[in-house]
Amino acid sequence: MKTKLTPEEKALKKKEYHKNFMREWRSKVGREYLQLVESKSRYSENGKAVMLARQLSIRGICLAAFHTAKARAKKFNREFDITIEHLILIYPATHVCPIRFVKMKPAINKIGSANAPTLDRIDNNKGYILNNVRFISRSANSKKGKK
Predict the structure, then answer these.
(1) In whole angstroms, what separates CA 108 from the centre of its chain?
(2) What is the pTM of this model?
(3) What domains, with CATH codes, occur in the chain?
(4) Which one of 51-60, 95-104, 109-118 scores highest in mean pLDDT?
């Protein structure tokens, strides 16, 4: 005989299900899953999983970098002349940082953020313009800034 769950028990059960689902989903993130996402397939079991999958695609990485760069250019009064399409073209096809030669992977909830791709201004006196930006790992970018 089934017993009725209280609203608190239902919420707890739902939270536990979501936690387990996300743990399993994160373990699936890898080369084959990124290829699946980039081929415009959808992982539709959970809205958050779809959102994370978009963030892990090259377009998602470039879109986030574009908006961050645009906000920083406005904040620090820098020139801004890049497009999302340009960022997609300059993103390394091998996902390897040209400075540290490590594989760049987007950070999920700050896990593995040292090798996350970031947009770097080659000449810091110039703004975000076409031939002055490149993708490098976060650790390489922070070491470059400390010089």
Answers:
(1) 7
(2) 0.63
(3) 1-56 (no CATH), 58-147 (3.30.40.220)
(4) 95-104
